[in-house]
Structure formats: C-alpha cells, structure tokens
Specification:
Blueprint: E1 2-10, E2 21-30, E3 33-42, H1 53-57, H2 61-64, H3 70-81, E4 85-88, H4 91-103, E5 117-120, H5 121-128, H6 136-143, H7 155-169, H8 183-188, H9 208-225
Helix pairs in contact: 6-7
C-alpha cells in the first residue's frame, strides 16, 4: 500500500478569503515503511501573508519571490501523490487549500479526491486519546517522537514528524519498521542500497532479564503518560 504523509503551509487560515499555499511537504510510505522519497516545494502565493501566518512559518514574500507559482508545480506534485492514500493532520484544512489551488487552474485537474484517498491522523488521535490535546507537538511528546528541532512550522519537517507519529499511532495495524522495499523498487526510486544481499530477518530470543527490563520501562511510561501505547 502506498501512502503519502502530507503537510502544507499557507498565507492564512482560510482559503475562502483568498489565502494561498506557500509550501508543500510530502513523505512516501510503502507498506508502512519510509521509502526515502520525498516531495518538497516552496510556492509564490501572489498575495500578502495574513497577520501571524508569517511568524508561524518563518517564510517571507522576499524569500518566495523567485519561487514558482502553483500552476508551474501542479503536474509534478500531482504525479507524486497520484493514486496514494494521503495521511494528513486536520485533513480538511490542507485538502480545502489544495482543492482551491486546483480550482484556480480550471477543471482539467479535477479535485484531490479524484486522485487520492485521505486519512485524517487528527481523527485517529482523537479516537485513541479522547479529551486530550492532539496537536502534532502534543502527539510527538506523547508518543516519544523527537521534535526538539521544530522551532517553526515547515511543511517537509512536519510531514516527517507526522510520518513517525502516524506509524506509532497505528502500530497495532500491522508490522512497523523503517526497513525498505525490495532492491529493484529502491533502484527505480533512485535510492542508494547499502546492502542488497541482506538475508531474512534473524529471530531474536528474549531473555528473562530483558523481559523484566521491558516491563519496568513500560511501567515508567505508564506513570509519566497515564497510558502505554504498547499495551493497547
């Protein structure tokens, strides 16, 4: 299954007020494993930032002055996401903006749901942690994802963090790991293969001492967080 974890940055909070996308970041997962393929693009918005939006992203019109318009990057962006399941935190926001951008190009591109399916990681988090804060930062802290380097909102960085959060959040669905697709698939994606002759995964036997240490660690997590994901 091919999934794309996606995030956007915009000039303001509402596309209905004419706000535009200024940055797109995507991370590709294949069978729940990062492939190493990403998509990242800054975009000239042809309008000013709303008050506060510039401080959140750290982007300026001066920085974006030589960046392409959405019309210039639409084909490459859509080719990257085509046919995938998109994982987005608060999906209605990003999908609304992307549909608005597509609508400005006329009818030939259609809309996002014509090309992709969407899963909202915010909805997943609210189901697992009802009544709690479920922002990306809150989930990083809760699930042990290091986000110390996130000083500003950036589309690619946020997509990378969300990929880790999503995999931890849905770890019970199937095997999770940061392994890779087969060698031929990696070559076609332009990914360097460190060792193409890797054999099957070894079977690891756990000792009684290791089991005890693991149980103690879960107890520490339970006391700090109030719940323990690995016991769910």
């Amino acid at each position: 299954m091919r999934q794309i974890v996606l995030d956007t940055e915009t000039t303001g909070l509402e596309w209905k007020k004419g706000n535009r996308v200024v940055e797109i970041g995507c991370v590709e997962l294949m069978e729940r494993r990062p492939t190493g393929r990403t998509y990242h693009q800054y975009i000239h918005p042809d309008r000013e930032f709303e008050p506060g939006a510039q401080e959140v992203t750290g982007l300026t019109l001066e920085f974006l002055a030589d960046k392409p318009r959405f019309a210039e990057i639409a084909d490459a962006f859509l080719e990257f996401i085509d046919g995938a399941e998109l994982i987005i935190h608060n999906a209605a926001f990003d999908i609304g903006f992307l549909n608005y951008e597509l609508s400005l190009l006329g009818d030939r591109y259609g809309r996002m749901h014509d090309r992709v399916s969407v899963e909202d990681s915010l909805d997943l988090a609210r189901q697992r942690y009802p009544g709690q804060r479920n922002s990306l930062d809150a989930l990083c802290k809760r699930l042990g994802v290091d986000n110390a380097h996130r000083q500003l909102h950036g589309a690619l960085l946020d997509a990378q963090l969300l990929a880790e959060v999503y995999l931890a959040l849905t770890a019970g669905q199937s095997e999770i790991g940061f392994g890779s697709p087969d060698a031929e698939e990696k070559r076609s994606a332009g990914i360097v293969i460190a060792d193409a002759a890797l054999g099957p995964r070894p079977r690891v036997l756990v000792t009684e001492d290791e089991l005890a240490a693991h149980a103690a660690r879960l107890d520490v997590i339970r006391k700090k967080a109030g719940t323990c994901l690995w016991e769910s």
